[in-house]
Design goal:
The structure is a homodimer.
Chain A: E1 2-7, H1 15-31, E2 36-38, H2 58-72, E3 78-85, E4 95-103, E5 106-112, E6 137-139, E7 142-148, H3 167-173, E8 178-183, H4 191-206, E9 210-214, E10 216-219, E11 222-225, E12 229-231, E13 237-240, E14 247-252, H5 267-285, E15 291-295, H6 299-312, E16 317-323, H7 331-343, E17 346-351, H8 353-366, H9 373-395, E18 398-401, H10 405-409, E19 423-424, H11 431-441, H12 450-459, E20 464-466, E21 469-471, H13 474-486, H14 491-497, H15 502-514, H16 516-519
Parallel strand pairs in A: 1-2, 2-3, 7-8, 8-9, 15-16, 15-18, 16-17, 18-19
Antiparallel strand pairs in A: 1-14, 3-4, 4-5, 6-7, 9-12, 10-11, 12-13, 20-21
Protein name (chains A, B): Glutamine-dependent NAD(+) synthetase
InterPro entries (chains A, B): C-N_Hydrolase, C-N_Hydrolase_sf, Gln-dep_NAD_synthase, NAD/GMP_synthase, NAD_synthase, Rossmann-like_a/b/a_fold
GO molecular function (chains A, B): NAD+ synthase activity
Chain lengths: 547, 547
């Protein structure tokens, strides 16, 4: 049997466009000899639809689009992810996260998702009713078991035993000899590898081949990374699809896999690819054609500019370079100009001195003596942002902001300033990874001066000043932040279990806890860590717990 | 039996403080002759704790605090809402939303919540495992059935039959002769009345008295309104507690209720009280002692100033009055100054002319000809906000912003400007309700000139300009927004079912859909409608569905 796998990049709620994409991929797979074509979870809907599903005609229109797809399906069956109604009279949530098996103009089979994740960024319990049984069905002599997303996630691969059911086992016990999983699994550092391991264990346990079809593209701060896989019944990889790319592949299931699954690509390449795809999709899906940003000659805005050019092309990236002081050009301004020239992007220089002076004068009218060291910094950031916003609005550009995750964690960024508006490209990238990205982006061509990156890396080993405060070295900060945020360890554990300095840990912890309000007003970002702020980590803004 | 009901205002995650509050209320009730004391859902934890519960020591510390409370409990039992562990080995969510019956130094009984809401702003399925049985227990000869929050919400009072279980019926069938519900029910316009109706229907059906104890205070944009009730077995009200006030009351259950439940207070008073309590709690719980704002002489900032003075006292409210044009004082500036003087709050006048001029000059460097009508408006708003932020930071004041819900709905406010930062007091108050609030605030004393309010009401009957756009009259806008947002009707339904003008409806719908990104960066607000943006209405930021 030849399997066509199509990694679709769906737009949330755009049924006509998604149906068209599915049909194009279907026809291409059929032409390439596929006996069956598989598309991702909610491929017709776009994941995650969130509360859109509650709109009165949403599911109705989804079902109309499904009927259209069924009409267009010939002798080769097509598996599509969509949303169906649950029973109107029976108690329970109103909808189903569903898969349809379309064949010869008809919907032959409907399957509901059984395990509905409601942890991390997932809210599926809010809208969907789970399946109450899982049965395989026979097509062409093969007993096919279809599962959706979470349905195949074994206890060992999630934090704790969460579910009372195990759909994959139920299907295998009912005699399934092929497992198909359609998925919309968001990327985070290490997740493709983790998934590959899971699928290997699953195939070995089930003793059946597994077809895993994952979505691709960015929706709602999540990047779906594709990396679809086909494994044989011993868990060997028969084929894999590329990461971060909408594409299809037709694979002969009778091929035997050769050895263990290939390792997935490396973290830093994955992060680069996720951010590139994120920028591209965000700009396109919000209806913009160009993006603009402030180039400051710092490492963050330099990395964002390189990523943006890779994602959008140099013609579609515009920059403002802020000449903060009249007279001689500063080193950072010079770096900004050189980068813009190297990348070949259009940029304009603008001085903010006069605005700053008049703002200072106004402030002196309302405060006798401004002694707060952050007032100045806040002003500069807000003035930059104000100019960028005027520029963006006038020209219909999307704004890219460049605050990194480490600074957002401890509140060292300015609400209404550099961390606001448009897309926060590095909002989930820790400082140390910003350096790694800079080096990675330099591989092809030295966009960012190597000595400058080295200098920044050196600086990240030292404490740095922010206003009157002294913050710990980024290299230490990022380690402690990872323990505190990603691994959710308590301050006490980090101090006693890992031996970190108590005042440093307590300072960081307090900063993270107190600055939730700032993060909740920051620009949307692109998730690349296991615990992104906002969607994955939903802390109360105001709370008093210290652990 | 005499019931002590204590409406506790809990701080999220502050176990020592919450335990102290509970103990104080308990002792007061005992002194007043209570035979049993009831506190709200999660009274020891603060609702909603969100992902705080996943912190490694959170539940451990909660249980320590519960032990402390048990130790302090004497012959009069105390019912406390807290979080417990679910089984460590059994599959399921790790925690329980729980109630403890404390008596004579011990935890006599633990009850788990059965129906876990995961709609609207509720996410309880994310963390909690539901109870698998509901049994009453005997205390002092009375068979008591304890339920938590959602457990008593009958199908008729929620949008559709959501649950497969009905804890209240299970308890009644097992012979319960008293139902106690501990709750943390957030306020929205009309919710106290709806709850009162529900409880009446429930008591009549169960033929038992009902004790309903609700939380009070603001946490995470939600205001819990108290309004606890005791009904006899015929659904008659025996006693009620005030709305929006932390307090306790001891009530003799053997008193018969006299007739139907009293109507709860009127919408506009409730909204006023919710906003007042919201401001007060937000300022206090974020650790500020004063708030500052910009007084513009418009109806929104005037209403916010009045509410802030009622909530915090005039000494704790500071204002900036922007003199936008040199020379003669404008009417709105004069109104701002008069209001500040009437309220007796400290204010400073500051001119933004020079900043605006220098910003215009900088902008002319980057754009040949700024033709976008909103660039100017955006600049003015951001300059105001920038000054306020400097002022707030220097003096450690919390900022209050005053954008209303109608403008936020259609994106007619400025990110990084007036809609940002601090607390968005009117972010969930539609324009027409802002007028009603202004009149309500004027009842005691004419703070806001009556003619001005009348003039504004008159204007809200006319189309208004925003940049080059003409927006529909607010009075029409608010009606259509309510249908589209609160009742989730489709554009088609609003046009064909309600007969509204198609271009107007489509314009509004498009504005609402396109401006989700702005709202997601707006300041946190105080929920007063049934579908507040953000917590209750979680739409994708980028989506293409039009209904």
């Amino acid at each position: 049997m030849k399997i066509g796998i199509a990694q679709i990049n769906s737009d949330v709620g755009d049924f006509p466009k998604n149906a068209k994409r599915i049909m194009q991929a279907y026809r291409a797979c059929v032409d390439a000899g596929a006996d069956i074509v598989v598309t991702p979870e909610l491929s017709l809907v776009g994941y995650p639809p969130r509360d859109l599903v509650t709109k009165t005609t949403f599911v109705e229109k989804c079902l109309q689009a499904l009927d259209y797809l069924a009409d267009e399906t010939g002798d080769v069956p097509l598996i599509v992810g969509y949303i169906d109604y649950h029973d109107f009279v029976q108690p329970g949530k109103p909808f189903r996260n569903a898969a349809a098996f379309l064949h010869q103009g008809r919907i032959r089979r409907k399957v509901w998702k059984t395990l509905l994740p409601s942890y991390d960024m997932f809210d599926e319990h809010k809208h969907f009713e789970p399946a109450d049984h899982c049965k395989p069905f026979v097509y062409n002599g093969v007993k096919i078991g279809i599962t959706i997303g979470e349905d195949i996630w074994l206890d060992d691969f999630i934090r704790r035993p969460l579910y009372h059911r195990d759909p994959a086992s139920e299907l295998v016990e009912s005699g399934a000899d092929l497992l198909i999983n359609i998925s919309a699994a968001p990327f985070y550092k290490g997740s493709p590898m983790k998934r590959s391991n899971l699928l290997e264990v699953l195939a070995c346990g089930a003793k059946t081949p597994i077809i895993y079809c994952n979505a691709v593209g960015m929706n709602e701060q999540l990047v779906f990374d594709g990396n679809s896989l086909i494994l044989d019944e011993s868990g060997n990889e028969i084929a894999n699809l590329p990461g971060f790319k909408a594409c299809y592949k037709v694979v002969d299931l009778d091929t035997k896999g050769n050895g263990a699954p290939k390792p997935r690509s490396k973290d830093i390449k994955d992060i680069n690819d996720a951010l590139e795809l994120g920028i591209k999709d965000y700009v396109k899906k919000t209806g913009f054609s160009s993006a603009c940003m402030i180039l400051k000659g710092d490492i963050e805005s330099s990395v964002v500019a390189c990523l943006a050019v890779k994602a959008l092309g140099k013609e579609s990236v515009k920059a403002l370079v802020i000449a903060e002081h009249d007279g001689d050009i500063s080193k950072s301004e010079q770096r900004a100009v050189e980068l813009a020239e190297t990348l070949g992007i259009e940029f304009k220089r603008v001085s903010t001195d006069l605005i700053k002076q008049s703002a200072d004068r106004a402030i002196s009218e309302i405060m006798e003596d401004s002694s707060h060291p952050l007032v100045d910094e806040g002003l500069a950031s807000r003035i930059r942002s104000m100019l960028l916003m005027a520029y963006a609005r006038e020209n219909h550009f999307l704004m890219l902001s460049s605050a990194n995750r480490s600074d957002l964690s401890i509140g060292h960024e300015v609400v209404g300033g550099d961390s606001s508006n448009g897309l926060g490209v590095l909002g989930d990238v820790p400082k140390i990874f910003v350096h790694k990205l800079a080096n990675y982006l330099n591989i092809e061509n030295e966009f960012i001066p190597k000595e400058f990156i080295a200098e920044q890396e050196e600086l990240s080993r030292k404490a740095h000043k922010h206003g009157k405060e002294v913050a710990p070295p980024y290299i230490l900060l990022d380690l402690i932040l990872e323990l505190y945020i990603d691994y959710q360890q308590s301050g006490e554990d980090i101090i006693n279990g890992h031996g970190y300095d108590e005042p440093t840990v307590r300072w960081i912890q307090r900063k993270v806890d107190l600055n939730e309000w700032k993060r909740q007003q920051a620009a949307p970002t692109i998730r690349v860590t296991s615990k992104a702020f906002g969607m994955s980590r939903r802390m109360p803004m105001i709370q008093s717990f210290v652990d």
